[in-house]
Design a protein that fits this description.
The chain is of the alpha/beta class. It contains ten helices and 15 strands. Its EC number is 5.1.3.2.
Length: about 325
C-alpha cells in the first residue's frame, strides 16, 4: 500500500498520458494507467496498468472499487482528424460514450475530480494569432466536435453534481521527455515534427501543404508546446481541484507561432540534414494562423512553458526519433 494519492490516468500508455504519469509520480502521486492499448504502448507505462476499454463499465467499476482513486486524468480518445471525417461513429462512441461511461463510474465511486485532455480543434476554423478561450467553439470535424461535446458534458456535471473539471485545450503538442524512453510513436503519423523526422530517417514521405499563405514565408503558422510543459499543467490543474477549484476550460500554448518552413529549418539546424519534401496544395480547412492566447492558464494555473522554445522541442524530439525510427536506406 502507498500513502501517495492515487490518480487514474485513462490513455496513460499514449504520448501525452505517459508524460503526465511521469509528472504525477515526480509530484508525489501514484498513477494507475487505464488503457486498451489500441494506440498506446505497454513499454510507455512505468507503473500499474489496467488493460481495458472505457466502454467496459464492469472493468471501470472494479478499478474504483479496489482502489481509493482521488482524481482522474482523462486522455483516452480516438484522435485522427481525417479518420473522424470518414468514421464519425467511432469518434462519438469512443470519445463521448466512453467519457460518459467513465463519469458514471466516477459518480458511483464518489470521485469528482477530473482533468480532461481537450484540444484547440474545438475552435474549428479559427484563424488567429492570439486565440482566447471565449472565442466561439465551432468544430469542423467529428474529432473536434466530440471533444467540444465532452466539455459541455463536464460543464453540466460541474453544475449538477459538483464535479471539479478542468478542460485543457492543447495546441500542437510536441517534443519528448528529455530523459528519453517515451515520445511520439503512432502507426499513422500525421503530425508535422515527427513526420518530418521520420522522413529524414527514411520511413515516410513528407509534404508541405501550401506555400501561398499570407505569412512571411508562405507556410502556415502554429503554436508548439512541449509535452513536458503540458504534463506539468495537468498536475497544476489537479492540485487546484484538490483545493476545491471548480475548473474550467483553458488554452495550453505558448502564444508564439512558427511556420512549417521555420520548423524544417530548425530540424536542419539540429540534425545537419535537410528534410526531403514536396510542396502540395493547401488542405481544406487549414487556417493560416493558429496560435493560443495562454494568458488565462498563466493566471490560473501559473502555466509558464519552460521547455517549449523551438530548440528544446526539436532537440528532444530528435533524440527520441533516432531511437524510435532508426535511419534506413530508401
Amino acid at each position: 500500500m502507498t500513502d501517495r494519492p492515487i490518480v487514474l490516468v485513462t490513455g496513460g500508455a499514449g504520448y501525452i498520458g505517459s508524460h503526465a504519469c511521469r509528472a504525477l509520480t515526480a509530484a508525489g502521486y501514484q498513477p494507475i494507467v487505464f488503457d486498451n492499448l489500441s494506440t498506446g504502448h505497454h513499454s510507455f507505462v512505468a507503473g500499474e496498468l489496467v488493460t481495458a476499454d472505457l466502454l467496459d463499465g464492469a472493468a471501470l467499476a472494479r478499478v474504483f472499487a479496489e482502489r481509493k482513486i482521488t482524481a482522474v486524468m482523462h486522455f483516452a480518445a480516438a484522435s485522427l482528424v481525417g479518420e473522424s471525417m470518414t468514421d464519425p461513429q467511432k469518434y462519438y462512441i469512443n470519445n463521448v460514450q466512453g467519457t460518459l461511461s467513465l463519469l458514471q463510474a466516477m459518480r458511483a465511486a464518489g470521485c469528482q475530480r477530473i482533468v480532461f485532455s481537450s484540444t484547440g480543434a474545438v475552435y474549428g476554423n479559427a484563424d488567429s494569432k492570439e486565440l482566447p478561450e471565449d472565442f466561439p467553439c465551432a468544430p469542423i470535424n467529428p474529432y473536434g466536435a466530440s471533444k467540444w461535446m465532452i466539455e459541455r458534458i463536464l460543464a453540466d456535471y460541474r453544475g449538477a453534481y459538483g464535479f471539479g473539471a478542468f478542460c485543457l485545450r492543447y495546441f500542437n503538442a510536441s517534443g519528448a521527455d528529455p530523459a528519453g524512453g517515451i515520445g511520439e510513436l503512432r502507426d499513422n503519423e500525421t503530425h508535422l515534427i515527427p513526420r518530418a523526422m521520420m522522413a529524414l530517417q527514411g520511413h515516410v514521405d513528407f509534404a508541405v501543404f501550401g506555400d501561398d499563405y499570407d505569412t512571411p514565408d508562405g507556410t502556415a503558422i502554429r503554436d508548439y508546446v512541449h509535452v513536458t510543459d503540458l504534463a506539468a499543467a495537468h498536475v497544476a490543474a489537479l492540485k487546484l481541484l484538490e483545493t476545491g477549484h471548480a475548473g474550467g476550460s483553458f488554452n495550453l500554448g505558448t502564444g508564439a507561432g512558427f511556420s512549417v518552413r521555420e520548423i524544417l529549418d530548425a530540424i536542419r539546424q539540429e540534425t545537419g540534414r535537410e528534410v526531403p519534401h514536396t510542396v502540395k496544395p493547401r488542405r481544406p480547412g487549414d487556417p493560416t494562423y493558429l496560435v493560443a492566447n495562454p494568458s488565462a492558464a498563466r493566471k490560473v494555473l501559473n502555466f509558464v512553458p519552460r521547455h517549449s522554445d523551438l530548440a528544446t522541442v526539436i532537440r528532444t524530439a530528435w533524440a527520441w526519433h533516432q531511437k524510435a525510427h532508426p535511419r534506413k536506406a530508401r
